[in-house]
Design a protein that fits this description.
By secondary structure, the protein is α/β, with parallel strands linked by helices. It has 4 domains: 6-204, P-loop containing nucleotide triphosphate hydrolases (Rossmann fold, 3-Layer(aba) Sandwich); 217-369, 3-Layer(aba) Sandwich (Rossmann fold), CATH 3.40.50; 371-434, no CATH class; 475-555, 2-Layer Sandwich (Alpha-Beta Plaits). The longest helix is centred in the C-terminal third of the chain and has 22 residues, at 371-392. It starts with 11 loop residues before the first helix and ends with a strand.
């Protein structure tokens, strides 16, 4: 089986585009599809979003376009305008020299503006069946030069009654064209469609046979793509994870996530295909030896993980893998009865279903840990540490000291609390503060005279300084047409997005879609509401009850 993009038949220019985006090795679907399209065959592909299917047709198309042909050579049909924009962006991203003119079209844009962009240099049109058909009828472009047709999301087009419109365009395209059909799930109707419009297609279906897996706990947490770093930090704090692996799909993200972990106080290092062999060997050797200099977390791409022989109690898929086999290989690095967590973006749910079919089991959903969960978990871990000391250590010399204090009239519980505070101060403090609020490890400074304890900076001032140092996500722009509100509750009461949407929609009598982005923090939440409904929300929902607590809304 080919393991590199070069072995699939892609030329150096295409591989350069992949390296710029951080792709290291092809997914299973890409290994199967790219050679078929390069060979000019029609294909029917079953692949979930996130499996690498878009790059699987974009790469061979970019390689086979003929710059000497005037006219549209490739039509890519997508079920929605947002998908058309995403696919067009993929074409541009994998085309480093920007030598190919790609035009996305959909009902979301004025057709005249689109027509003006489709000139003699346009080679690829990406859009919905309805809008492509409208342009063909207006003779914005001709179909006589079309060599390749891609139907991406055919099952959704079937569900949305777009198939007849699609067929009307296909009937006008040259019969000699190459056609590739992609669907999340193939059924009898799509197979019949393929039989009518494709020529002896190669059918590539997803692997469905259950795999033999190590005994580990499989968990996932739903999270918006832009909130993954914050979700990762909450997960590590809430589960009290002090050591583990974090899997990343793209090389640039490995460095970015490792840096975010270091900024939050974790000792983390990135591993990827461009990490030098000396650095890699040193990191892995120190990890195995659990030396003082070893990173607590290795943030690594799949290419770096393939050659590792490690066992860890915890691993986190920051990015869900592009295929079930890769997920299985990640699980083999988790020790028996350990946990493999996955941060799942909404559009990746179908890919998780593919993994579940491959595993022959369900992956359990878990809610983000609340602040109360984190405090309770770390408190119990601290108490267990004390129990272990009592069970294993010779404490007689300390008992004599404590007896002396008791004879002076001090209560035993006060003596114990003072001892814990004095000897375990740093750990005790950590019970009630998030690890992400503590500073990352710094090189040891030269010895300085100790300041008296009473001059120590107050905790509230330290927290305020950290808030000033931390990047402010709330400074990002509000979506056009929306107003941002602030609610005085967040993870501290266990509030969830659906709680907020339900409360606002029901109390203000507005549609749920009027509530936009929701950004939940520890003690407050940012909520964006469509501008036309903002006065109704503020007038009718100045306060409401969520998760057993009265909360208020105001303009941010």
């Amino acid at each position: 089986m080919s393991q590199t993009f070069a072995e699939l038949g892609l030329n150096p220019e295409r591989i350069a585009g992949l390296e710029m985006l951080g792709y290291e090795k092809p997914s299973r679907l890409q290994r199967e599809v790219i050679p078929q399209i390069l060979a000019g065959r029609d294909v029917v592909v079953e692949g979930a979003p996130g499996s690498g299917k878009t790059a699987a047709f974009v790469l061979p198309i970019l390689q086979t376009l003929n710059p000497d042909v005037v006219g549209i050579q490739v039509l890519v049909f997508t079920p929605t305008g947002s998908e058309a924009a995403r696919v067009a962006a993929m074409f541009q991203g994998l085309n480093p020299n920007q030598s190919v003119h790609i035009v996305p079209v959909s009902e979301e844009q004025p057709i005249a503006r689109e027509a003006a962009r489709i000139d003699r240099t346009a080679m690829v049109v990406v859009g919905t069946p309805g809008r492509i058909k409208a342009h063909a009828e207006r003779e914005t472009f001709g179909l006589e030069q079309v060599q390749v047709v891609i139907i991406d999301g055919a099952d959704q087009m079937l569900e949305d009654d777009q198939i007849e419109t699609l067929e009307a365009v296909l009937d006008q395209a040259p019969g000699s064209r190459q056609t590739a059909l992609f669907a999340t799930q193939l059924d009898a109707d799509l197979q019949e469609f393929a039989d009518q419009h494709l020529f002896e297609p190669v059918v590539l279906k997803r692997e469905s046979a259950p795999a033999t897996m190590p005994i580990v706990k499989h968990r996932y947490q739903s999270v918006l793509h832009g909130d993954k770093v914050a979700a990762l930090l909450r997960l590590l704090d809430g589960e009290n994870i002090d050591r583990g692996l974090v899997f990343i799909n793209l090389r640039p993200d490995a460095e970015r996530v490792a840096q975010a972990l270091r900024a939050a106080g974790y000792h983390a290092s990135a591993l990827h295909s461009q990490t030098s062999s000396e650095t890699r060997d040193s990191l892995v050797r120190n990890w195995r030896d659990e030396s003082a200099s070893a990173a607590s977390f290795l943030v690594l791409t799949q290419a770096a993980a393939n050659d590792l022989v490690l066992e860890v109690p915890y691993a986190v898929s920051f990015d869900i893998p592009t295929d079930a086999e890769t997920y299985a290989s990640r699980a083999t690095l988790v020790a028996e009865n350990g946990s493999l967590f996955t941060l799942l973006a909404p559009r990746e749910r179908a890919l998780l279903s593919e993994i579940e079919n491959y595993l022959g089991m369900r992956v359990k959903a878990v809610l983000p840990p609340t602040r109360a969960d984190t405090v309770a978990q770390r408190t119990e871990a601290f108490k267990q540490g004390l129990r272990d000391i009592i069970a294993r250590s010779n404490l007689e010399i300390y008992m004599m000291l404590l007896n002396d204090l008791s004879e002076e009239g001090h209560d035993w519980s006060e003596i114990a609390a003072a001892a814990v505070s004095m000897l375990q101060h740093a750990q005790a403090e950590s019970l009630f503060s998030k690890r992400s609020e503590r500073r990352p490890p710094q090189p040891s400074p030269a010895p300085q005279p100790s300041a008296p304890h009473r001059y120590r900076e107050p905790a509230r001032e330290r927290d305020r300084d950290r808030e000033r140092e931390r990047p402010r996500d709330e400074e990002r722009e509000v979506e056009p047409g929306y107003i941002r509100l602030i609610m005085d509750a967040g993870y501290d009461v266990g509030v969830r997005p659906k709680d907020i949407v339900g409360a606002i929609a029901n109390e203000a009598n507005i549609p749920g879609r009027a509530v936009g982005n929701i950004d939940i923090r520890d003690r407050f939440t940012y909520v964006e509401v469509q501008e036309e409904f903002i006065d109704r929300v503020l007038n009718r929902v100045p306060s409401t009850r969520l998760r057993g607590r009265v909360v208020t809304f105001r303009r941010a």
